[in-house]
Amino acid sequence: xxxxxxxxxxxxxxxxxxxGMAGLxxxxxxxxxxxxxxxxDILSSLRADDATAVTEEFxxxxxxxxxxxxxxxxxxxxxxxxxxxxxxxRYEWIVSEAPAHNxxxxxxxxxxxxxxxxxDFEDFDTLATTRLDNFISKLANGESVxxxxxxxxxxxxxxxxxxxxxxLQSRFGGRGAGFVSADIxxxxxxxxxxxTSSNWKTYSVMKRxxxxxxxxxxxFISGYLAEGRANATTRWQATNAFPNLDSCTxxxxxLISRDTSRVEVTLCDTLRKEFLIAGDxxxxxxxxxxxxxxxxxxxxxxxxLCYGASMETNGGVIVDNFSVRSNNGHAIFxxxxxxxxxxxxxxxxDLVVLQYGLNIMQQGQRVYxxxxxxxxxxxxxxxxxxPNAAIVVLGVSDRWVKNADTGAYEPIGSVDALTSYQRxxxxxxxxxxxxxxxxxxxxxxxxxxxxxxxxxxDYTHINYAGGRRIARALTESIMQRVYNKLVEMEExxxxxxxxxxxELEERRLKAEEHLSNQIDAVTPIIDSVExxxxxxxxxxxTASE
Length: 545
Hints:
Helix content is about 40%, strand content about 20%. It is of the alpha+beta class. Strands 3, 6, 7, 8, 9, 10, 11, 12, 13 and 14 form a ten-stranded mixed beta sheet that branches. Residues about 25-55 have low confidence and may be disordered.
């Protein structure tokens, strides 16, 4: 009996240890009393060499279904344009008309490239004029552009994107933080905007199964969706974290109202207007032209799905941060192609950035063929949802891990491998690629980022200071392309002007030659007439004598 009880205790103790160790796998890296504690992964040795740490159910996109959805979406857009009295897509509130954008093209001499070693994009597009070329041309010509920056926790809270937005807006115009979700299911801080929300039921694309079926098929690439009935409220307020966040002159609130609903929009706690939203499955937007630094929406009646609001101006650059925590990029397959296309019709994206991979890396992992194939599908999905946008894949950032024996941090040993597979995916899909880890290495790599206070002591996540360095490097890459485009345009303008002057000179010379020929043709006649006159006069004089 004693042996039996002892065996039971041993088995129980063993199970407790196993469960405890497994449970530690869910505890993230943390610090306590000056000591650092790493996440424990007792199953790491059992992973396949070609591991793909996908945590969601949407691993593979259904492209056949996608094409069907997009065909329906395009038909709906076409029908809206032809129906005599269509359900409104745009609800307008003009308090003070937003100034029209007046494109002002830069000159090459206005651009100062900060470094001679700018990291250029690798553009694998084989067209004579690539989609990235079109994006750069719009910037060079002073036209409005909108950027969708899709990423994971690397850019959460507007890290990188906040400074990228500021850098581009300071050069090309534009104000405001762009798109901000109505509500999200966890607490977070975003420097560029203050959001206060209540009484919403919020959903994440990372947990689609928790959403009701009607909501599950309505996710946008923002990754979050808020469902609200009476008294659901969100207030968005611009901050002064960056110079160009305030003085917005336009706001657009994106929502779905399947049945008739009534919402109230308030500006700066003073101006209010109610909107009766007709029931329909399409994404609608409330378009507000007014000082738009402080906006609030409140549901009065009915039930709406609210994506969020965009705070902006007419013209310039708008950068939308679409960070989804713990996302390897696969969450795009959980979004609705129809919703994505409808919102693209409203906002109009010129560039889509795909920044992923940090969560997929495993120490010493060298083969990422499965992830490369999945990244190809992500690119193809984004291209179908945003057909007018250029696509840029950002390579994974640098990362170091702690050696269990020495306690020292060392390279994770898989950054270059994963980067090469990301680059290969961009190459095969004929889109552009930008090597993030290379630019970080040029600044000293993750150890320098940590020692300079640009990254957390987990040697994985950069902070706002580190994001600023990467954003400036990315801006320099864009500006180098803009500079090259301006030089090309100016040289072409000079060539055209020289050709015009040459043609004018040829016309002048031909006119002179024609006139000279006419004079030469007339001169003998004149001489003949003059000689005849002289001769006649002489003969007349002789006869008189």
